[in-house]
Specification:
This protein has 8 helices and 12 strands. With 273 residues, it is α/β, with parallel strands linked by helices. It folds into 2 domains: 32 residues, no CATH class; 228 residues, Rossmann fold. Helix 2 packs across helix 3. It comes from Thermoclostridium stercorarium (strain ATCC 35414 / DSM 8532 / NCIMB 11754) (Clostridium stercorarium). Pfam families: Methyltransf_31, Zn_ribbon_RlmA.
Length: 273
């Protein structure tokens, strides 16, 4: 029997892992999938939640090429400055887990004993992370109702994911850290110019979060040079643009073998008051 870092989504009691079953004191039970994750999403409708397999596999294949490594390196640097042994790090909206897994492995290589957990509303995404790293505790769940105990997390990470400020504040310990990554206005501008006749800059998020103090901000800017149509297509398919683009505009990607485009990220670091 092992204590989980997740709580029961029905009664908020702590979950214990017994074999392949997560069980709370009120006997609510949740099966652990063969790949290792648990589904704690209360809405079990047949509709598919979150990113689909096409987007997830495109993102995984693109990220594995290292195009976003400068962002990963900066993110890891910030976390290393903040982390302590036995901390709990939650990736809220972990996706397929490229950032989560690489951060975990870097912390472990530096002999940090950190409990890393990841949630995402997409079952396909969580399954990919669970298969990638068995030591990260993973669950299908919404960032708007996280099955995580109040004031239990030392670091919460959100990389291009929706943010529910109330939930972030609830799960953070006092003086704990929330790290948010978002695209800046000109991120992937040249990719958009390739596809669309009229290009709109990205809208920046509201950076004021009540109850959290913005402690530091960083930008990571680079030009990436994509030398194959496969890499360009993967980049396009991992963005929301793919599902909002006409077939004729998608054809412009099929005809392109080389592309240089901007990558521009904002990283905000908050502390809970």
């Amino acid at each position: 029997m092992r204590m989980s870092h997740f709580v029961c989504p029905v009664c908020n009691s702590e979950l214990m892992l017994e074999g392949n079953i997560f069980r709370c004191r009120n006997n609510h039970c949740y099966d652990r999938a063969r790949s290792g994750y648990v589904n704690l999403l209360m809405s079990q409708a047949k509709k598919v939640h979150g990113d689909d397999k096409t987007m997830l596999l495109a993102r995984r294949n693109f990220l594995e090429k290292g195009y976003y490594k400068p962002l990963l390196d900066k993110l890891t640097e910030i976390i290393i400055r903040c982390v302590k042994n036995n901390d709990v790090l939650l990736d809220a909206g972990c996706g397929e887990g490229w950032y989560t897994d690489n951060i975990y492995r870097e912390l472990k290589s530096r002999d940090y004993n950190v409990h890393v957990i990841g949630i995402d509303i997409s079952k396909n995404a969580v399954e990919l992370l669970a298969k990638r790293n068995k030591e990260i505790e993973t669950a299908v769940a919404s960032v708007y109702k996280m099955p995580v105990k109040s004031e239990s997390c030392d670091i919460v990470l959100s990389v291009f994911a929706p943010v529910c400020a109330e939930e972030i504040k609830r799960v953070l310990k006092r003086d704990a850290v929330f790290i948010r990554v978002y695209p800046l206005e000109r991120h992937l501008l040249s990719l958009k110019k390739l596809i669309y006749d009229n290009v709109v800059l990205n809208e920046l998020p509201n950076r004021d979060i009540e109850g959290l103090k913005l402690a530091e901000s960083h930008t990571v800017k680079n030009i990436i040079n994509l030398g194959t149509n496969g890499d360009i297509l993967n980049l396009f398919m991992m963005t929301p643009y793919y599902y909002r683009t006409s077939q004729s505009d998608k054809g412009k990607i099929a005809e392109t073998d080389k592309l240089s485009t901007e990558t521009e990220f904002g990283i905000d670091v908050y502390r809970r008051l």
